[in-house]
Amino acid sequence: MAIKQKFTFFDIINIFFLCLFGVVTILPFMHVIAKAFSGEGPVIAGLVNFLPKQFQVDTVLYVLQRSEFLGAFRISAIVTVIGSALAMFLTVTAAYPLSKPNLIGRKFFLYIFVFIMLFNAGMVPNYLLFNSLDLLNTIWALVLSGTFSVFNMFIVKNYFESLPESVEESARIDGASGIKTLLYVVLPMSKPVLATITLFYGVGYWNNYMSGVLYITKASLKPLQQYLFDLTNEALNIMDSTGNIKNIDSAMNLTGESVRSATIVVSTVPILILYPFLQKYFVKGITIGSVKG
Amino acid sequence: MRIGTNTRSFTQYFKQNYDMYLLLIPALVYIFIFNIIPLQGIVLAFKDYNMFIADSPWKSIGASEWVGFKHFINVFARSDFKRALSNTIIISAYKIVFLFPLPIIFAVLLNEVRSIKFQKGLQTVVYLPHFLSWTVIAGIFISLLGSTGVVNAALVNLGFDKVKFLMDNSVFREVLIFTAGWKETGWNSIVYFAAIAGLDQECYEAAYIDGAGRFQRMWYVTLPGLLPTVVVLLIIRVGAFMSAGFSQIFAMYNPTVYESADIIDTFVYRIGLGKMDFSTGTAVGLFNSLIGLALVLFTNRISKKLTGRSIW
Amino acid sequence: MKKLLSIILAAILIFTMAACTPSEEEPSDKTAEPTVKPVETTEPVEEDPILTGEKPELNILTWYTPYNMEEQPPYNVVEEITGYKINWFNLPLENSDDKLMLEVSGGSSYDLLMRINSQPANQLQVQNALMDIKLMLEKYGNNILSAVSDMALDSVTTEDGMIYGIPHEAFSGTGYGVMRGGIGFNTKYLDDLGMELPTNLDDFYTVLKAYTNKTDKPALTTVATGWVSYIMAGFGMGDAGWYEVDGEYLPRIKHPAMVDYLAFMQKLYKENLLDNDMPINTGATAIEKLTNGTVLAYPIMFWDIDSIYQAFDAVGMDAKIEVATHLAKDAETDPVIYVAQGVSYLTLVPKTAKNPEHAVNWFNTISDNDNFKEIYIGEEGVAHEVKDGAYYPLFPTFNDYNHADMYVGVNDAENAFQMWQARARKTDAMAEMYEQMNARADEYKVISYYEPYAASLEAVRNNQSALNTMVNDKLIQAIASGEDAQTVVDDIIEEWENTGGLDYETAMKEWYAANKDLFD
Question: How far apart are CA C275 and CA A40, in angstroms?
């Protein structure tokens, strides 16, 4: 039986403020997009606000053809896909047993997970670990850093705990093992959380900058975020601590502002494409139907 | 470990449920290799790390000299440390109090809109700022909030004085909170949307049949449904209390607002410039983690008392 | 179930894709081919296998570049000339010194560490991580030895006579060409005011004041910094961090004119002659204010000129930029400019190098005068031409050499500087600006400062960056707050001394006493 809801005054106010929030959050993006499609002159003079001036697509095309960009993009794409798949596997397999309240040793495992979430020894030991494993300057160094997030695991575990026990019990009674129950009964009911965590891991990998800095010196393995960071912060490289220019030739070849903006825009597109696919799982009311009473 | 369970029933339990432990193995192996082994490096907080001392930097961790609390004292004894500590606490507390509830409110309110298209469209839009780095966003806000920027122009038009948003200690914190909220609220609401989507529709129907109005349904079904998620996220958030937002503050601050916005992380960054000193960073990290741990335990206990929920 | 299948299928697909990715090997993998061919024992003179034998691939780590070094035209030029294939590796933009330490101590095998800053280079030396290249230089490094000055070579020789690196000297010239920046003025606004380009502090103040009085807008804008060297010049200071004053060697913050300089900057700020947003200005926001016509003046480098004119165009501003280089104290005094002499970077051979002799040989080849020129500015008549003894670029080929600075070896500093000037002439606007800035070069008193040679001292390494940042931050605060200049400077000096400045000062004074006779 559908819930009937009248359209009230509250709805008007609600929608108004929500729209306001939406507008406010999209504006800076429009600003960056506008700069990406504007001529260099107006960008330098600060004339570009939300619409391009001296509209041109050359900059974006130039960015799309730069071999450094394409290489970094490809690396990040591969790392994101493999890494997210691996991460989902680790997360779901850990979350399910921990969501069973009668699991012996549950608290112990949770203590460990929370502990490693709070404590980490910093960049150097991580670097040394990858060094000992001979993984430096390989794509695996990028895939294997950040593969398991305790935070994400807690979200999945939480979700599993909120599912009604009755469904799992009936599967049990039918003779299914724990793993089968997970695969055939629980996971299909968990689409919202799986979509969410896939998104989180995907974005986490896509946005990861540190792993490139730490583990890679080969230019062809540079991930996209590091490439972007370098582009945005080039000026850092040029001056020494007294404010004097260290390297004239680099200073003379800094990237233009519109190239920077274009690169940012193009780097964000993949996520923008991914999200709507996952979004359809945030749909209400898919869980139950099979259980009454 | 549940001590006191007699072995007989554990063996029985194990036989019936060994596959649960099997499932745990991949994650445990991963975190053992990639999280636990590197933790050895925490001892660097108490040593003067010299990575060349032994054949390899790993061995050098063990071979480096013990210096006790030297690095901690070096940081804590500095004249500006107190300020950094208090700023960290204040800014972090503000952020939790004002910014933690926002994504929840947003998710609940958006959920009330009937049009699914509207919901989806707005969802797609509000997470966008999350993808721009703070360096880029800081640049935008500097233009917006500078003395020749749009906001001040509007203020002047309305008859007010110009406000030095980014150079005035009495407003800078507010600017930080506002911009952080603007950047992350949308993204942080995704988790709550998913949680709402997973709520049992039958509860809503039952409540409706019982005569509950929309606000009552929100209060008695949605919010309690979100409670488990909220509790876990809050406890975890509290564990990160000592990170008041390095990337944001580093990108947006300047010497005129150090007074109100210099946090421990930015302070340690500046004093460590050019020094190649890993030990100090590790020491401060350890300090932050210990405080985080204490807060997690404390908040967890409160949560148990108030809501009966705990993270373990 | 279907979902699981599709996930597995996808994973398989991806794994295959990844496997097809050419695997990037860690440098410590064996990429070296055998270097020694059996030598004929009947030959009266032994052939040196390094010079005549097969050439192995070399792994070279250098600092950050925004581009892929193996994809730039000079890469091929170098390979043609030397016959060696180079695998290039780069340090990251941030924390590069830390990463360098980790890479070297962790055993990654690079044959050469090229263009490393003196500070981490000296760290590596102190930690015994570098090879003594003295013998190799004598055997294979004739070009290198003739290119570097005695003082530079001295600075990389230890007390035991070990040479631990090849110095790359700073070349900024001491005559024409020494000016590369100044305070750019909008010529249209100057004309409207009926005023001329200022050359000393008094005129400077007058011009700024006239503008702000007329338009009620700030006349000068700068990025967030406490030091504007073009203005400091009027107080007898400059880019140098240390000054010889009455026989004493003093850090900039203790210079007798420091308080006057700060007071002057505070005055400009207070009277709104200096943009009050200075503490939050970035390069981008500051240049906006110049190009959209808000301010009259902004410190620029000559290569900024093209962007500025582009922006002027977009705004419809019909003006050019005239640059006031370092200001003189007043109309009677000569203007002063401080020029850095010293070693900018070092090229090192780590102990873990697999092919050290080949590496030195390679480096020597690219330091040969003709080779250097060919890599740096290309072939004469094709990429560049020589007119009246000066170098001019030829397009479009010259653009291939934009990044050649990272590929060359060492060469005589003055020589290299002349060649560099071809870059200064890349566009008409830049060439014009460069000319304009250097038109008065001979009026200037040029003071060379040598402190970069001291950069490798431990006390300097440990304290310089953090102290400089602290001083700069406090100056910015003080300029904005307008607090009494003398109090501020005393305050800064106290903080400076308490947080490592005393050690720093002692080390520098010792170094000065030992070396001052070598200064010219």
Answer: 24
